[in-house]
Design a protein that fits this description.
With 296 residues, this protein is α/β, with parallel strands linked by helices. The chain has a twelve-stranded mixed sheet, with helices on both faces. The chain contains nine helices and twelve strands.
């Protein structure tokens, strides 16, 4: 994999080592951003350490940003190695940042993850991710109107929360094998302005579905109901079904008067995994970028 070193990273690292910080509009602070090596950094937010990996396109000024959120127990590094999203995103002009979550401070047995709303308490991850995107936007002169979040599993749960609570920052979110936690569903808003793309495996036993009856046994809403909600709250209507890959079905919702999009890809025989060409006839990275390209 071709790695891009962040421009001026050595200088930036020296500056950050003496304690540079950045404040977002809510006065939350990204502190002690330290260049570790190559394109890898560490920082603190609310006293919690996070790592992140920045992958930049050749022309970074005005580039859209994709924030990549790993699954439970993973890290920015393991997620980058698993999906290699930047290999297709960077040539199209996207900046990509992989971010490491943190363990729940109220649960000594928990592993690294995201506070998606499954529990009553946890890290301030919505505020952290908003602050991080603002920091990166300022540091690299990125397009503040095109900031996207893509997550897998627990990271995908988090994208539902970001779409609900941080739509002023994230204009589109992508959930791969994710559900909307009950607490987020319960406080859903009537209106939204965020595009959403859900990728669901038909045999995913984590995501509750009406199609297989699993939603009856879950406190979280059926993913079909979630998709209808995202479409309706954005003022969108069902447009068309597309057959793609190995018997997968892509549903699209849109409007002539609205640039927002809601997509749902249901993968036959798909499990709780990141779709790949060799297994599903679908390359998740390619179709996610197709979706993001509608957000120009």
């Amino acid at each position: 994999m071709k790695r891009r070193k962040v421009i001026g990273s050595i200088i930036i690292g020296i500056v950050f080592l003496i304690g540079c910080s950045f404040k977002n509009q809510n006065l939350k602070i990204i502190e002690n951003v330290v260049w570790e090596r190559d394109n890898k950094y560490s920082c603190f937010f609310d006293g919690v350490r996070h790592d992140f990996i920045v992958e930049l396109p050749d022309n970074v000024r005005g580039a859209p940003l994709v924030v990549m959120l790993h699954g439970y127990g993973e890290t920015a590094e393991s997620f980058r190695k698993a999906v290699c999203f930047e290999e297709k995103a960077n040539p199209l002009g996207y900046a990509v940042v992989y971010v490491t979550g943190a363990a729940n401070p109220n649960d000594s047995t928990s592993s690294i993850g995201w506070n998606s709303g499954l529990g009553e308490e946890g890290n301030n991850d919505v505020e952290f991710l908003v602050a991080l995107t603002e920091y990166l936007q300022k540091e690299y002169s990125l397009d503040k109107k095109r900031i996207f979040a893509v997550g897998f599993s627990n990271g995908a749960f988090m994208t539902h929360r970001l779409a609900m609570e941080a739509e002023d920052t994230f204009s589109a979110c992508v959930s791969v094998a994710g559900m909307m936690p009950e607490s987020i569903w319960d406080k859903r808003k009537a209106l939204n302005e965020v595009s959403f793309f859900q990728i669901t495996g038909e045999r995913d036993n984590v995501v509750p579905k009406n199609i297989d009856g699993s939603a009856k046994y879950s406190n979280a809403p059926a993913i079909e109901d979630v998709i209808e909600y995202w479409a309706k709250s954005n003022g969108l209507e069902f447009e068309k079904l597309y057959g793609i890959g190995t018997e997968a079905v892509l549903s699209k919702y849109g409007s002539r008067n609205n640039k927002k999009q809601v997509w749902h890809l249901l993968i036959k025989e798909g499990y709780h995994s990141w779709p790949r060409e060799e297994f599903n006839g679908i390359d998740a990275n390619t179709i996610i970028l197709e979706f993001l390209e509608t957000q120009e």
